[in-house]
Amino acid sequence: MSFCPNAILRSRLNVGLSPSAWTSPRLWHRQRGTTLTLRRLLSGAPGSSGNSLDKLRVVDNDLPSPEASQQSVAQSILHLRSTAARPSPAYSSHYRDITIPDTLGLETPYKFPLEYQNGQETLSMEAEDDTSVPANATMKADHVKTISVPSTRKWKDDRLRLQALIEQLNRQAQELGKPMTARSIHLDASIRLKSLYRRPLGFRQWKSACLELFSAKSDDREISNPALIPALNESDWDLFRKIQEDGLDSFKEAWEEMNRPAKASHWQRLALHLLQQSPDLMLKFLLVTCQSSDIPNFNMVVDSFIYLEQFHRDALTEWKEGEYTYDSVIELCLDPRDWPILRVTQKGIWLFLQRASHKGLVLALRTVNERQTSLTGETVLVFMRRFMEMKDVDKALETLQLLSTIDQEEFALDSQVVMRTCCKLLTLDTVQTQDGVRNFHILPRLLELGIRPDRDMMNVVLSNAFKTGDPELGFDVLDFMKSHNHEFDSYTYMTLLCDAVARGERHRVDLLLQEIQSQDQLRENPFLSSKLFHAHYVFTAKHMDTDADASEIFSSMLNMYNELHDITPLKELLIVPPNYTPPIRGMNSPPSRIAMYIMLATYFRCQKGTSNINRVYSRFRALLTEGNEMIAPLAETDHIYNEFIVAFRDSPRNLRRCVRIVEDMLSHIAQDGVIEGENGNRFIHAKPSVRTWSILLSAFIFNKQLFAAEKVKEMMAKYNIQFNEVTWNHVISGYANAQMIPEVAQAIKSMEEDGYSADAYTVRSLRYLRDPERLWVAVDELDANSEALDARLAPFAKPSEFAGEPEKEHEHLLDRGLQNLKMQLQS
């Protein structure tokens, strides 16, 4: 005798026994009162057609629980069968009442509203106990994806299984201790019914095949058990050729013509074959099959994308098919509206979140909230971090509220991982004025959620307060931290040092230095030491007094550097005097880029002539070409190049060297923009930034080389470098230094037309004017003489768009104008 559950069920139904009364193959219980009813039902009652046994196939784990009442099951079957026929057109909608156990084990009524649209039944999910959905209202399509039931005839096989699935999901919800509304449970069942695969055998075959694929690919070996990977038959090859040769439209047409069993038969074999042989075609395959009416199982699609991500991500990053990209295919195929609700693989959600656009993230969050999708705390934080990357503060805070519904102690609101994420969120905080009161935007909302800031969070708040430009607000936060006994750490002192240096308050820096020196842990902190080194540079070398001893300043900076870092890289650059003897031996740690930059900038400011600077630049280029591990990182930003240009720009005879520096940045120092280090490291060489071009432009303006400056301006347009406030301030400063007052007036006017207003740097540049009253006269004359003056100052008016595109090949920076300049310098 066969003990297959399906065979037993069919046998019991044939003899008129209850389908839910059996508990083992050996127990047969005839129930009076049901034999005639079931025989009539199965023999072709009104409203039924064909062999009803074929339409009542269920697997063992989908049967109703043994505790369910036999009478209620029979009544449910009769009710579903009796309503199978299409109703009269006069009754466009009706409700079917089915009793479903709720998550507390109580019997609650649930209504399935059916509305006929274009000959189809649209199953609208709504529940009386779901407060997020208005009572007796169908969810709008833009909020929840509509689950369409094509026709009652097609769903004859699934009506009973729908009931069984809902009861099964209810039991699972009770086991997990997760309260769910009836609407969410029914929607989860509907999503599962859309899957191509409904039997455990299909999942077991897929998992075994995937495990073998992953293992073989990871170990770089052949498939050890080919029997696990089903071979393609002739019809499979026909579909494969349609994807490969005919394109998506032909494959889509062939796929949609097949019924569900045929799709299920083909999908696994084709998917496993494409994963091995053609990842790019696998994306096309998923693109079509995941948009069909019968979609593959969500977990199977996730497994496919995980395989592609792990082994073919780099190759697929540039993949494109029409308007679709790799990211958009993932976003479409892992649509949040197709996620299972009660038990969903979190890896699939993570993959979606990593690749989704902002619109996709918003849809996912809305769907999760409305459907009560089961998420882990880690998934919620991934959600939150993605919104933070996109600077969407409100959605990040909305996501954070989901943690209150998750019973995981390690992700409680006061846990370390949540508090650290909130610290990251606070870095996006801003100050806003409402009803005449200034307050932060994010901090109050975190407090409303019940989060109590710790010292780390208050450090971020302190930093935000000083960034507002209101020091009093910063000191108020500092007083709050003191009153709540928050112990200051390196982050606190770093924030205070940055604000003191930015404001030029040297006395505050000295006080902070005393506090830092009194604590061993802070005194040895490399970040604080680096900031103190920078502060010393700002207050001594950067703004050096005219009567200061340059050699003494350089020696003091060199001594402080020696206490922190290895002095060897400075010796290789030839900036350490031969007779220098360090007073003490320092920590001998490799220098940071900032430390190297500060020492080079100090050296340039302490040198009276440019011959030594030219020697240092030649040495810098040589070490860069060799890939020196200490020098190559300096070329990844434009800072050091800008310092070289500033050091050369004051003399007309050194303008050609300024041009040479920019040419080096554009051309031949780095092959394809990459520097190969001595140890195999790769460093990306920086291109001239808008600041670099602005300094070069100001150098020619200061030296009254207007024709060359015009060529610089054209090259800026050619490389799509637009004027910004830094550029305008450099131009105004150059004109003011050259006492070109009408040009200063025109530059200020053009800057305002470009949307930039004069700032403190602009005002400071005007101090170079010997006769500032003439500036206001020139401003008054601008309107009267605008045409003549605009023609004269065309190179320095508002930059116009350059019609050409930057060419890939390198070319000389200043073209004919600089050649003329070179001839002038040589004469």
From TrEMBL:
It holds the Pfam family PPR. It comes from the Eukaryota. InterPro entries: PPR_rpt (IPR002885), TPR-like_helical_dom_sf (IPR011990). PPR repeats lie at residues 724-758. GO terms for molecular function: mRNA binding. NCBIfam families: PPR. PANTHER family: PENTATRICOPEPTIDE REPEAT PROTEIN (AFU_ORTHOLOGUE AFUA_1G09370) (PTHR47938:SF44), RESPIRATORY COMPLEX I CHAPERONE (CIA84), PUTATIVE (AFU_ORTHOLOGUE AFUA_2G06020)-RELATED (PTHR47938). This is Pentacotripeptide-repeat region of PRORP domain-containing protein. It comes from Penicilliopsis zonata CBS 506.65.
